[in-house]
Amino acid sequence: MRIVVALGGTALRRPGQPLTVESRRAAVAAACAALAPVAEAHELVISHGAGPQAGQLSLQAPLHDAAAAHTVDGLDAQSEWAIDYLIEQELGNLLPAEAPVVTVLTTSEVDPDDPAFADPTAFVGPGHRAGRARRIARERGWVFRQDGDAWRRVVPAPQPRRIVQTRPVEWLLARGCVVICAGGGGMPTMSPRGVRTTVGAEAVVDKDRASAVLAQDLGADLLLLAGDVDAVYLDWGTPHQQAIACAHPDALDAASFPAGSMRPKIEAAAQFARTSGRSAVIGSLAQLAAILAGEEGTRVTVQVDGLQLR
């Protein structure tokens, strides 16, 4: 079976832990412990989020020097390979020596006319007090929005149209490689109208949406969107919350879920299920074996009608 797993949440950063190399490696090692048995039994492609890392890297340039600030697509590339390296090393330590684990630095093609460029909404990087946010915005031309009690930078989040390196990923899978790619959704690139060259975009691509496009183009049998919770819940956080066992994509109203949590996963899962006719599962990486057995997670598939609760 060909499986695409998109890592998020605690796969890269444990709750309450600082964003250090040591804490990130510990979280990656735990994720790889769950992934290693799957890699030995199936064709496996791994993607991951990278927003906090990209935001942290963006602050390395002097605050007063706007010209020294990194472009967002460049930060995407740096954070992608930095996390890919940890996954490649930790997973390689668990697999047989002859099992190849390969990283493909990946770009996602986006539409230069995507309306997201006129309305940046994707949070990147740490939070700041209002005064510091205004100062950074003035010095670097960044856009900030309030996120709880803090102010954070926002950038456009256009829809991915295709993963440019899909064919090399297919070649590697055919040769028995575990492939790590589309980290952070891949570096966003586009071809402006009337221009034949490709340029980077000052944006980020949601890793779940990019993973859905990748899984579709690879003909994956299963897309797993792994996060911090074990399923999608109705009435989450209330005494009446109920886990959804499986659902037809038309039965899930993504708009009823918070934009910063489950909504991108639900939209990506529904997109993959509709376009491929195969299943996407939203669940916890810690329950990966049970998810593959159909016992845990929320399965989104066109093979059922409506919602079925667990």
Entry summary:
This protein is of the alpha/beta class and 310 residues long. Helix content is 33%, strand content 25%. The protein contains 8 helices and 17 strands.
Task: Tell me about this structure.
This protein has 310 residues and is an alpha/beta fold. The protein has a domain at 2-50 and 81-107 and 162-220: 3-Layer(aba) Sandwich (Carbamate kinase), CATH 3.40.1160. The chain has 8 helices and 17 strands. The chain has helices at residues 21-41, 51-58, 72-94, 130-140, 166-174, 207-218, 263-276, 288-292; strands at 2-7, 43-48, 101-103, 107-110, 122-128, 143-147, 150-155, 160-163, 178-180, 187-190, 199-200, 222-227, 233-234, 242-247, 279-284, 298-300, 307-309. The longest helix has 23 residues, at 72-94. The radius of gyration is 19 Å and the shape is globular. The chain starts with a strand and ends with a strand.
